[in-house]
Each structure stands twice: as C-alpha cells, then as structure tokens.
Amino acid sequence: MKHIDAISHVTGQSVFVDDIPVRTGTLYGSVFRSPAAHGRIRSMDLSGALATDGVVRVLTASDIPGVNQVGGIVADEPLFAVDRVTYQGQPVALVVAADERVARKAAKKIRVDIEPLKAVFDAREAFKNELFLVPPSTIRSGNIGAAWDTCRYIFEGQTGTGAQEHVYIETQGTYAFVSEGDNIRIQSSTQGPTHVQETVARVLGLAMHRIEVEVTRLGGGFGGKEDQATAYACMAALASYILKLPVKVILQRTEDMEMTGKRHPYGADYKIGLSGDLKIIAYQAAFYQNGGAAADLSPAILARSLFHATNCYHIPNTEVTACSCRTNLPPNTAFRGFGGPQGMFVIEAAIAHAARELKVHARAIQEKNFLSEGDQFPYGQVAKQVNITKCSKLADQTFDIDGTMQEVASFNRKHPLQKKGVALMPICFGISFTNRSMNQARALVHIYLDGSVGISTGAVEMGQGVNTKIMQVAARTLSVPVSRIKIETTNTTRVSNTSPTAASSGADLNGKATEIACNRLANRLRKTAATMLDEDVKKISLDNEWVTIDGVRSTLSYADLVKKACNERVCLSEQGHYATPVIGFDKSTGKGHPFAYHVYGIALFVAHVDCLRGTYRFDKVLIVHDFGNSMNTSIDLGQVEGALIQGMGWMTMEEVVFDRDGKLLSNNLSSYKVPDIHSVPRKVTCIPLPVKGPKHAILRSKAVGEPPLMYGIGAYFALQEAIRAFNPGHVPDLIAPMTHEKMLMSLYG
Ligand code: MTE
Ligand code: LUZ
Ligand code: MOS
Question: What confidence score (pLDDT) does residue 129 get?
C-alpha cells in the first residue's frame, strides 16, 4: 500500500498550516527577538513599532494573563524574556498587525537596551564553570576500576559531534482563533498537540478543556516540533485571546533557523580497554552535551545517549557519565535519534582509534564484540531477540564485505590521487520513550451507518506514514478494504492526554490502541451477527466485508450487519487504550528494562575521495535492516533511505556556525548545506533481515523512524579510512562533521 498522502503531496493539494484558508479579520504576529546572547534588559522602546501603520498591538511578558513559562521538563524557559536575555534569537515581544509584512517591518523598529553579560557557547567551557541544566548522571556496569588492569590495550581520546538543523520543509507555525465563550482553537504544526494544549492553558491561565488543538499533518518534524512548536502556538493563542481575532504566527526560514534549537552538539572523552584478542573489556566515557539556554528536552536526550553509549556491543565493564551544559545558544532539542547518535558516535570513534593503533580494520573489533542473546546492556536490560550478528552475516553473504575491501585496496594502489575507504556501521536502537509514563496511546473508532469507518488517534502524521499504517491496522482488524477507512485529524478533543509522536513509537502505540478498539468493535459485530443468524459466535468471522460461518460466506454482508446492529441499538464506537507492558527503569539504581525491544541493522559504506580537491562522494551504502515483519515495505524503505541521508548530512556537510557573539551565521539554505540528489550515494541498497518480529511491535512490524539515522555515522569513518589511504600519518581529531573543507585540511595535515 502506498503512503496515503503521496498523491496529494506531489500534486500540492495537501493542506499545511499556512495553507488553511484565512478567516476574516486574521492578524499576523512577528516575533521580536533578542539581539544579544546574554544580558540584562535595561529598557525597551516599543514606540517605533506601535506607530507603524497597520500595527494592532505589541505583546510582551506583562500581557500574559497566566504564567510566562513554556519549559517542558524543567520550568526554566519564559515565553517572552523578562529582565534578562539568554540567547540571540530569544523571543522578547510579538508584534501583531493586519498584514504579515507590516508586522515584520514593525518588529525591526523595536529598540532594546541590553547590558551585556558574559556569554558561554561551548559545552566544555560551561562544564568548567559548572553551568548545568540538570545534575550530571551516570550509568555503570561491572567494575570499571578493576577492569583496566586486565586490559592488554588501553586508548584514550576526545571526540565531538556538531549540531544539526532540522530543515523541516514547513517552518514552525500556528493559526489560532477564539470561538464562542472565549474558548481557543489552535491549528499547529506540532508533534505534541497535548503539550501545546497544556502550555497554552498555563500561559493563558485557563483550564485545558478550553483549548482545542488540531493537527492535520506536518511538513516534517524530525523532533524539532516535539516541544518547540509550543512557544509559537502560545504566541498566536495569546494574541488571539487578547484581541479576540484570529492570529497567525508562521516563521520564515531564517527566523526559524535563528530562533529554534537544533540537535545537541556533544563533546566527549573516552577510554577503551581491549584484550589481546580484541574483546572490549572496559569502556569509560564522559559526554558534554551543549544544551543551550534552557533545558527543553535535554535531560531526556541525555538519558538516551547513556542508553546507547555501547551501541550493539557487549562490554562487561562500563562507566558513562553525561552532563547537560547550559550555554547561551537557542535551547537544543529532539532530533531523530534523540541523543542516541551522539552516544554511538563516541564508541565508534573509540573503536576506530583502537583499530588504527592496532593496525586492524575497525570491523575486526566491531564483529568481535557484538551483543549475544541474553547479554545485559549496561542499564540492566537483558538483550532478547538480538539480531546484530544475523544482520552482519547476511550483509557478509549478500554484499561480500571482504571482496569489497580487497577491491578498494586495489583501487587505492592504482590511484595516487583518488582514495576509497570502507566502513561498517552496525546499529542497535531501543524502542520506547525512556520516560515510562509516555508509553501510552488512545484511539477513538467510529463505524458509521453506511459501514465507513473514522479513526482518531494521538498520532501526528509528519510524512513518516503513521496514518497509512493505522489505516492498515484497522482494515486488517475489521476485515474491510482501506477505502472504507478514514484517518481523522489529530485533535485534543477527540483523543486526549497524548504523548508527542516521537521516539519512533507513533505507529506502535497508536496502532496498538487502534487494534484494541477495532477488535472490540469486530467482536461486538460478530456477536450481533451470531444472534441474527442464530449461530454460535465462535463460528462467526468477519472476512473481507462478509460474515462467515465456519469460514463459509453467509448471506449477511458487513454493510448490512452494521445497519442492523445500529437498529438493534448496538454501540458502534470504541475507544482503545494501549500502554506498553513490561517496561520500567529505576533512575536511582540506573537499572531496569526501559525498552520494549531493540532495532538492529548494519550498513557497509564505500567513500570515494578526490585527494586533489578534497571533495568526496559515496560510491555505495549497502544495508541489512531489521524491520521485523514490515507491514509496509515502501514506507519503511523510505524511512531507511531518508534517515540514512539525514544521518550522513549530519556527519559530513551540515555545519551549524555561530559567530563569536552567538549569532547564527549558517542561517539559510545557501550557508547551511543539506544533502541533495547530487550528494546522495551513487547506490543505496537495503535488504530486510528475514525475521518474525517482536510482539510489542505493531503487527510485528518494528519501529523504523529513527534507527536508520545512525547508519550515517558510517560515512564519517569511511571518509577517515580514505584519508588514511592517502595520508597514512594523519591522526584524526574524531570531530564531526567532515566537511569538504575539513577533508582538504585532513588530507594534507
Ligand atoms: N519521516 C518524515 N518523512 N518526516 C519526519 O518528520 N520524523 C522522524 C521519523 N521519520 C520524520 C520522519 C522522527 S524524529 C520520528 S521520532 C519518527 O518519524 C516519528 O514517527 P513514528 O513514531 O510514527 O515513526
Ligand atoms: N522523546 C522523549 C523522544 O520524550 N523521550 C524519548 O525517549 C525519546 N526518544 C526518541 C525520540 N524522542
Ligand atoms: Mo523524533 S526525535 O522522536 O521526534
């Protein structure tokens, strides 16, 4: 089945927030933002903006009827800055005007006098000054102190990974209006409608039931709208509530890039100890997360970095500490992988370091240390249905890894100015929100009189295909064609108290809730049919729009059954609630079972460097991925391809640059380069690992949204191999991204 939005996307008929036909009287909000990274606000002059023709109002913190607070996990983030600004781009005021251009022009006329304070932009510097967003945390296993003595080899070093801009095609935006009784209706491009509802209620000082949040779909989120859509929704709602008119706040690309947080840059220290036969005996690491000026989701992201610090390897003695450092940058936030990629980069860097010193290919260390069935992760969970070795073996058989390495070696001997490099990137990613309470979802299913079905869930469609998957679940459970089924918008009045669609768990959680509701409806319909046909309910099934008795088609069709059931006053609506069983994690002991299951896979990279110019490309990326039993192979393959390229972008060409005062220089798509069709690998192949799939995955089809992003890490290490073939003495700094510029320096440095 194709993605149900495919046709409307490519023909431009899909409706995004800025496409919603405007209501009469709609006003536009433009955000005035801090021009300084850190300072005390001495005074502010709004008169220039207020005097501009067409400006209706300028809103600041003093206009907020409720609480000036939008922090999610920690209450440390004002909607509008008061007294102090803590990053360039921080919202200070909202100019509301009848015209979008007027609002922007007027915002430029606001003057603010700021007394500068010392600003910090680097995580390690913040660490030295003990500027933390939350206290540091550690995960331990075995006995690291005693383990070093038993190691034959020990290597230590530092690494770093850069920020990453989400570049969702649809920028942050909200359209809000006040309805009868001063209730508020919000259409927002958010992954977390309940987070928007809850926060708008807090800011306006209203009960949550007065706020209705509706989401049709997002033009991409990638984590950037898990929490950070909320502030703009609050601004639109505030203006609308005060002015009693519809208000739109839609960011332009540069505004979005300058104001919103990115993937967290990490610095890290590592120490790795190996035995003579390349078993990793001990691993110690410290992560310095650049959190920006407020906590946002940083503590949860930090936790996921710890959980993924050893990737798919079994290491008996570990100690990994992570610090969330407060700096004067926009608060960094969720981004596909959610701290996992940053943690996994460090262990791969440590392995690459060991391999370089020991004069083996990293592959020899990687393959020697794969997790086996029953091994414990450092956080205590026992690994079950471990598929990493299976993936690796299938990759070996299918892609001939040895042959590829020999080919590359022979190419390198023949070409003095062209060098290739090979890297393997295995992955292991835990599925579930690491915060247990978030692992729940609900679905509301109506069967209408004519047999058509309407489904509401808490899932937000952002391109990943969750609506298509939910439709498939309902069609299968009710045994009707997908043409009978409609997926409704995501709306907080139909499905309440939702978790954001994130952690790759949207289809699992909302799909299972849908399955539960549809099963109840199917069973009720079977019971009704049994009564009508005077048969034992055990013999009755619904099969492809017909009622069957012992597998034989009866005279009763699905459509007739629905009509008759309604006549008999049978309820044709159901709500399903799903909460992931078995999971739980004890923060005080650092042990538990945080994940429903893990996703595995392996990617083989061949990088190709032009050593004269310092440019590179990727000849091929060959993947074996553990989809479980994929319920939609075209969507899932699309997720792997998209995530791979996004991960490669993070590792290679995407470079977020601030100037010395904390102003974003890479603030548009000409100075921030994302992969395009010319920079993708010449060949990408992904084959599924043939397995049954775990029962906690929807229809045994594993979550797929985030895990393949981490294949991208392989791009970095394949490039390092190519550099080494040209410049054998080169000692890499293990800092990503490896831009073309940095490549040139590495080849000759
Ligand atoms: N795919 C598209 N096309 N657009 C997106 O914004 N977000 C990713 C992933 N795939 C994203 C995407 C992220 S960060 C997550 S967590 C998952 O989709 C969320 O959806 P799911 O839980 O339904 O997989
Ligand atoms: N969001 C969150 C996430 O709140 N908790 C998580 O564990 C998570 N994991 C991945 C992506 N988003
Ligand atoms: Mo994805 S980072 O969980 O929104």
Answer: 97
